[in-house]
Amino acid sequence: EKYPEFIPFCENSKVYVIAEIGINHEGSISRCKKLIKLAKQSDADAVKIQLSNPELNYSKKIKSFKLYKKSLLTPDQISKIYKFAKKLNLEIFATIDQSYLDLVKKLKQRIFKISSSLNRDIFFIEKLSKLNFPILISTGMSSLNEIKQLSDYLKKKTKNNKIIFMHAVSLYPPNLKSINLDRIQVIKKKIKCLVGYSDHYPGPYASIMSIMYGAKIIEKHFTDDVNRKGYDHNISSTAKELKYIIKEIRIFEKFLILKNDLKIFENQKIISQKRDYILNKYIKKNERITKEDINTIRTGKDKKNLSIIELLKILNKRSKKNLKKFSILKISDFK
Fold first, then answer.
1. Taking the CB of residue 95, how many other CB atoms lie within 10 A of it?
2. What are phi and psi of 236, to 5 degrees?
3. CB within 8 A of 319, min separation 6: which ones?
């Protein structure tokens, strides 16, 4: 079965912002649709939910079992939720376990997410990788060596070049000292891949700042009411806050556009403030040019300037002809 075309994330793409509904829908399809609609109004690029079978993933004695049991959605409800998001032209995907894989494939899910607690399930991640879609892997609770081991394994077993590690802190919420956004750069350098940030800290600032450290994907928990009890409401953003985050990211990423590209903008060239190398004295034919004979001046002419390398090539070379004082140096004028 052929999936719709999906443009993979890359260094030159805009920052991709995901409204993480998770289980904040509390098992209600109408509440989930409401959150999807609010995410669309916030200008999010995608929404994400969490699909996890509590019987397969959690001990019945822990809090997570009760929360996931209470927030379970039926396959029919999930299908309706996906269709609703697609009608709004909003990308939708889910963090899943094995039991939901066939369903989300049928719904043509085009991004996959592995939670921090599932990133040790290397065989499941390998299976997802072979679908050749972007896979976001959260790194909470993982050391850099563990992330490297997983990355090396996937590179060996699959040809998927769209694996993105998401810096995350598995605290809800984390304290300021533990956020450590610099780890985004460390992961990027060590693993040589795109890196994102899964934000569990209340407020907008960690998400906005993360793009300064190289995050290309931001996942932010999302709700309509931070005062609701339970689930992830207290660490989530509302529509108003998420819209603000995205607005600021769109402004700040413009400052970062030249981060990996030091080419000069065309409008800078037109200004013609670049200085030319000129002669500060008359040079006779066959006379050698020395560094004492050279000066720089802004001529105001919009043309190709002699480069530093070219200048060094003609240094101490003899001139082919008589050259007037204040002549602009040309490599063709020297032997």
1. 22
2. -100, 165
3. 283, 284, 285, 286, 287, 289, 333, 334, 335
The pLDDT, as a whole number, for residue 6 is: 59
CA–CA dist 225, 234 (Å, integer): 8
- Gap between the Cα atoms of 306 and 334, Å rounded: 13
Stretch (H or E) spanning 218: strand 217-221
Q: Is pLDDT at 1 greater than 60 in this prediction?
A: no
Report helix, strand or coil for 120.
coil
Give the single-character DSSP code of 255.
H
DSSP one-letter string for 285-302: TTPBP-GGGEEEE-----
- 240-250 pLDDT, tens digit each: 999 999 999 99
Backbone angles phi, psi at 229, to 5 degrees: -80, 145
pLDDT at residue 59 is higher than 70: yes
Q: Provide the token pair at 23.
A: 């289980």
Are the C-beta atoms of residues 23 and 67 closer than 8 Å to each other? Answer: yes
6-10, 88-92, 157-161: lowest mean pLDDT where?
6-10
Rg of the chain, C-alpha, whole Å? 28
Q: What confidence score (pLDDT) does residue 7 get?
A: 57
Q: What is the mean pLDDT of residues 62-84?
A: 90
Per this entry, what is the length of the chain? 335
Contact 287, 333 (CB under 8 A): no
Listed in sequence order, the residues at least 6 apart from 166 whose beta carbon sits closer than 8 Å to its beta carbon are: 136, 137, 138, 139, 195, 196, 197, 198, 217, 219
Phi-psi region of 192 (alpha: psi -120 to 50; beta: other; left: phi over 0): left
Q: Are 93 and 104 in contact (CB under 8 A)?
A: yes
Beta bridge partners of 334: 319
Output the average pLDDT for the chain.
88
Q: Which of 170, 180, 179 is nearest to 141 (CA)?
A: 170
